[in-house]
Amino acid sequence: MRLLIAMMKHETNTFSPVPTPLARFGPLHGDAAIRAYRGTGTGLGAYLDLAEQEGAEIILPIAAGASPSGPVEEAAYKHITDTICEAAARGGFDGIMLDLHGAMVTERLEDGEGELLKRLRAIDPETPIAVSLDMHANLYDAMIANATVVTGYRTYPHIDTYDTAKLAGDILSRTMRGEAKPVMAWRNEPMLPHVMRQGTDDHPNKELQHRCAAMTAEGALAASLFTGFPHADITNAGLSAVVVTDGDRKLAEELRDELLGRAWVEREAFVYKLEPLQRSVGRAKTMPPSQPGDGPIVLLDHYDNCASGGTMDTTVVLAEILRQGLEDVAAFAIYDPAAVQQAIAAGIGARVTLSIGGKMAMPAIPAESPPLMVTGTVKTISNGHYRNRGPMARGVMMDMGATVVLDTGTVEIVLISRHVEPSDLNCLLSLGIDPMQKRYVMLKSRIHWRAGLGKVARAVVDCAGVGVCTSDYGQLKFEKVRRPIYPLDLPNR
Ligand SMILES: [Zn+2]
C-alpha cells in the first residue's frame, strides 16, 4: 500500500496586517516532517500511525502550518500546493490523507483548501482523499465535492486533532478495502458565531458537538459542525455542517439539516456581550485575595489573540492593568523582537526602560494601540523553545523566538519574537513563571488557553482591548460575506 500524506494549515484573518510568507509555515519535507510529527497528538501524527499500522509506504511531500495571520502570499500557497500536487502526479497511491485547516484565504483565493483539492482531483480522479479540518473551517463546495471523506474537530480548545484525523483515516482505510462507500452532505447557515462563544465547555456548542458524536451511533460515519471563523471577510465565513454516511445520501442530508437547525435555534447564545475594559480590570482588582492552592485569576486580552491573526503587540489591556495597580501579575505576551534585543543587550539583572508593542499598524480596524513605556528588571533570557505537554498539540516543539521576562515589580511581562498563543502551560513554566503562584495571569488568547490553564484558573475576566480579533463586530468592515447574515443583519426572529 502507498499513501500520500500532507499538511497545509493556516487560519486566515483577512483583517490582520501580519504577513504570511512561506517562512511563517516553517515547511518540513519527507523524513524531516515524519520525524517532527511521528508520535505527536496532531492530525499528521494520526495519519502516520495509521500508515504504519497498514504497513504502507509513506510519501510525505510537505508539512506546512503557520500561526494565523493575514492572507497567504501567493508564492507560499503555490509552493505548498505545487509540492503536494507534484507528488500526487507521480501516481500509484492507494489513498491520500490531508491535514488541512479549512479557513485558508490567499491573496487571490477565498478557499485555499478547495482549490488544492480541485487540483488533486484533476490529477487523480480515482484515489480516495481523506481530509481533517479545524472547527473554524469556513466551508466551500469545492472542499467537499473533491474529497472522499471530511471530518472536523469536536473540541475547542482543539484537543482532538489526533482523533479527528484518525476518524478520517479509518473511514478512508475502509473505503480503500471496499468496505464503505462514503457520501457527504454539507451546507452552511447564515450565521457568524462569535469565537468567544464557541468553546465546547460552554452552551450551546457543547451540546451541538455532543449531538455530532451521537450521530455515529445512528448511522453516520462522521458528523461535524463547524462553528467557522468570522474574522474573514469571504463569502462563506460562518457556521456549516458536514455529515458522512455509508452510501445513504438521504440520511446524511437529514442529519446535516438537524445540526444546522439546532445551531440556528441557538444563534443568540453565540453572540458575545462586551464589558468595558476599565470596568473589567477594576472588577478583577476587587476580587478577594488568593488562598494557598487557588489558581490565578485569568485576564483575557482576547482582542489580540495571535492564534486568530492578532499582532500580539497591542498594549491597551496591559496598560490598564499597570494603571489600576494590579499586583502579582504575569503577562503573556507582547510580541516585540526589537524590545527583546534591547533587553538581551542590557543583560540579566539590568534595569531598563523599554518602549514595548504598538509597532504594527492595523489599518482594517479603527482603534489605535500606542507603544507602552515600561521600566523593569530583566529577569529571564531564553531561546524561547519549549515542547507542548498537552493536551493540545502534545509533543510538538514550539518556538517563541528570543524571549525575555521583564519584571516591573508588579507585572512580569513576557516579550517574545515569534507569535505563539499561550495554550500550553510550558510557555510559562519554561520561562520560570509558575502561574499557580501568581494572583493574575494576563493571556492574549480567547479559548485555547483553557487547554493549559483552564482547569486551574480561579476566575476568568474578559478584557476588551484592541486588536484585529476584536470581539466587536461593529469594528470590522464586512464587504464580501454573504448577506444577510446573523447577527450582522438578521433580526433575532
Ligand atoms: Zn481553530
Structure description:
This protein is of the alpha/beta class. It contains 14 helices and 19 strands. An eight-stranded mixed β-sheet has the order 12-13-16-17-11-18-10-19. Strand 16 (403-407) and strand 17 (411-416) form a beta hairpin. The longest helix is centred in the middle third of the chain and has 17 residues, at 249-265. Zinc ion is lined by residues 134-136, 158.
Write the layout of secondary structure elements.
Layout: E1 2-9, H1 22-25, H2 30-37, H3 43-53, E2 57-59, E3 63-65, H4 74-89, E4 95-100, H5 112-123, E5 129-133, H6 141-145, E6 149-152, H7 161-176, E7 182-188, H8 205-215, E8 220-226, E9 240-246, H9 249-265, H10 277-285, E10 297-301, H11 316-323, E11 329-335, H12 337-346, E12 351-356, E13 372-382, E14 385-387, E15 397-399, E16 403-407, E17 411-416, H13 426-429, E18 440-443, H14 449-453, E19 459-463
Helix pairs in contact: 3-7, 4-5, 8-9
The structure holds zinc ion.
Q: Briefly, what is this?
A:
The protein contains 14 helices and 19 strands. It is of the alpha/beta class.
Q: Which structural traits does this protein have?
A:
493 residues; alpha/beta; 8-stranded mixed β-sheet; 6-stranded parallel β-sheet; 14 helices; 21% strand; globular; binds zinc ion
Tally of strands: 19
- Which distinct ligands sit in these coordinates? zinc ion
Helix percent reads 25-40%
User: Which strand-content bin applies to the residues?
Assistant: 15-25%
Distance between the termini: 54 Å
The overall average pLDDT, rounded, is 96
